[in-house]
Design brief:
Helix content is 59%, strand content 10%. The protein is elongated, with a radius of gyration of 22 Å. The longest helix is centred in the N-terminal third of the chain and has 34 residues. It starts with a helix and ends in a 14-residue tail after the last strand. The protein has two domains: 225 residues, no CATH class; 86 residues, Alpha-Beta Plaits (2-Layer Sandwich). With 319 residues, the protein is α+β, with helices and mostly antiparallel strands.
């Protein structure tokens, strides 16, 4: 039985990392093949890396810049808030950086083998230094929309397996060490600042900023849709036989707060305990896996909540 359980755990872990790798590859594809060739702006650590890429004239690949930016953020956060980053976050950052580097070499560089096939099929010849637009959409708006969809699907796949791309999450962690600020507000502020800054770069301009905001909107909507809804948090009620084991597992493995509520089954008239937990919607899949591991027969209800205020969530004083 123990061997079967170990095999199951190994296969589950491999599946999670495989899906995260696919998600990060799709995320990288959106940036490299849709956004960069048409010089649209973007937010987050990747958007910041894109700013640096354009500012230095593209002498360093975007994948290398993404790795450098995230490594610096991880190093700073490690000294400020502690070295508590999950292996999945580091894995996603590495896969994303490597995927971006090779996709850029293969797809958008004129001498890349995929780019050569694309340009020959399209019957075009590009001067040196020109980025190849793999889809040749001829429309920056369509490229921004397609890029936002690819980014959203990739990030959602990553979140569903308990992964993270670092970047803004790391910065938010550092800021919240000193100031309590809504995660959603923080992401909006930082993304807007990065996108607006792109307007000072040659070749981007006002239209690049507009497409950047379109990209961010499509990306956010796609993530919300895949992760089931537009709500920021999920409230979970769990009724099971061993409520203590369930509460301990959620608290220790998911690092989420748990409340145990007195309850009574009306049919049996027996007193029992109900476990209640609130989590970010991106953490829901991980939490459900933990619940299933403790008690596959647990009775669970999940509801979206409009707002959650308190430790670990938004501060009531900041509304």
């Amino acid at each position: 039985m123990g061997i079967t359980l170990n095999k199951t755990n190994i296969l589950t872990t491999l599946k999670e990392y495989l899906l995260m790798a696919v998600g990060m590859s799709l995320y990288s594809f959106g940036w490299i093949c849709c956004i960069i060739p048409v010089k649209a702006a973007g937010g987050g650590a990747t958007g910041l890396s894109l700013l640096i890429y354009h500012a230095i004239g593209g002498v360093i690949s975007i994948g290398t810049l993404v790795l450098i930016v995230n490594a610096i953020l991880l190093l700073i956060a490690g000294f400020i808030v502690g070295w508590k980053f999950g292996i999945k976050t580091i894995f996603c950052i590495l896969v994303m950086s490597v995927a971006m580097h090779f996709l850029q070499v293969w797809f958008t560089t004129p001498d890349g083998f995929v780019a050569q096939i694309i340009t020959s099929l399209q019957g075009v010849s590009l001067p040196d230094g020109t980025l190849v637009d793999p889809f040749n959409l001829g429309n920056r708006l369509l490229s921004a929309i397609l890029g936002g969809i690819c980014l959203g699907i990739g990030i959602a796949m990553c979140f569903q397996q308990g992964g993270s791309t670092g970047g803004s999450d790391i910065v938010a962690m550092i800021v919240n060490k000193f100031y309590t600020i809504s995660y959603g507000k923080f992401i909006r502020y930082t993304d807007s600042f990065i996108i607006m800054s792109a307007g000072f770069l040659p070749g981007v301009g006002i239209d690049g900023i507009i497409y950047g905001f379109v990209l961010t909107t499509v990306f956010s909507y796609t993530v919300d849709t895949i992760l089931s809804g537009n709500q920021q948090s999920q409230q979970i009620f769990i009724i099971c036989k061993d409520y203590a084991a369930m509460a301990d597992a959620i608290s220790l493995e998911a690092n989420r707060g748990v409340t145990v509520v007195d309850s009574m089954g009306w049919y049996s008239k027996e007193d029992s305990k109900m476990v209640m937990c609130v989590c970010r919607k991106r953490d829901l899949a991980t939490l459900l896996k933990i619940i299933r591991g403790v008690d596959p027969d647990a009775f669970i209800t999940i509801g979206s909540v409009m707002g959650v205020y308190g430790k670990g969530f938004d501060a009531l004083s900041k509304i």
